[in-house]
Amino acid sequence: MTASYSPPPYIGRFAPSPTGPLHLGSLVAAMASYLDARSHNGTWLVRIEDVDGDRNVDGADRHILASLQRCGMLWDGEATWQSQRTGLYEAALAHLDDHVYPCGCSRKEIADAQLALRGRQAQALIYPGTCRHGLAPGRAARALRLKVPQPHHTIAFVDRWHGIVTQNLSDEAGDFVIKRADGYWAYQLAVVADDGAQGVTDIVRGADLLDSTPRQIYLQQLLNLPQPRYLHVPLVVNERGEKLSKQTGAPAFDNGASVGELLATALLPAARLLGMELSAASIAEFWRVALPAWQRLMRDQPLV
Ligand code: GLU
User: Fold this and answer.
1) d(Cα 250, Cα 237) in Å, to the nearest integer?
2) Ligand 1 lined by 191 (C-beta under 6 Å)
3) Predicted TM-score of the model (pTM)
4) Residue 44 in 3-state DSSP?
5) CA–centroid distance, residue 29 to ligand 1 (Å)
6) Where are the domains of the chain?
7) pLDDT tens for residues 78-98?
8) CATH 3.40.50.620 is held by the domain 11-85+233-297
């Protein structure tokens, strides 16, 4: 008798930060992850990423959930809130053990040290490693950082949209913060701990997070978590080339819009931005045509 092979179940997720209502940019990410999960007969989770207490906007979580429901994107199980899962982040921190060190530097000190080291071209704030071997006498710990192997440590992965992506973690990310000076858990740690705990197999999200993925893969390796598949969909930008967000003036999703408006101003444009030219007269019809269109789109991606 031969054992039959069953592929691992597909678990995907949409993980919005409740910094404001959904807009066309976040709707595109939600739609892609929803369509990918449904076309694999998978589970689709929704997780509210509210660890950054300073950026949360009151009621934005409920507004986003209502928008997803209004669009017919119904998630499986209960939605989760990161603010209620901090035990998971504590456990991940304990597991990381001596890969983590306290850092006493302020952003200004890091910027100054970087300028001295690399000159005027220095762009992203790469930590120069000042506190790596211990805090200088009299300095208090502000943040917790993860040690990245030096001098070179390259992470490579296959993204289903972008192909092979490589990053020299040491030079391009450096020792990164996993618990912030203001006491909040950093996105990188929380997202990896949650995706691991929820058994997420497939991460579909916006390409603005492409350069965070190698840091997340490195954390997965240290935490002995399986590496999910990744698909980063093209970022939606405005006429000035800026990522759509509340700050760059993206119109907020209107939960009170009629079905006609919803299709014309949200669902059909979001599908078009993903490369799917659809027409539909109802929300049910929209998903009926979007699902095979997504499957065709993915079939035409050479990497799937
Ligand atoms: N919470 C992040 C955001 O809204 C997305 C995180 C993720 O998908 O990994 O930008």
Assistant:
1) 9
2) yes
3) 0.92
4) strand
5) 9
6) 11-85+233-297
7) 999 999 999 999 999 999 999
8) yes
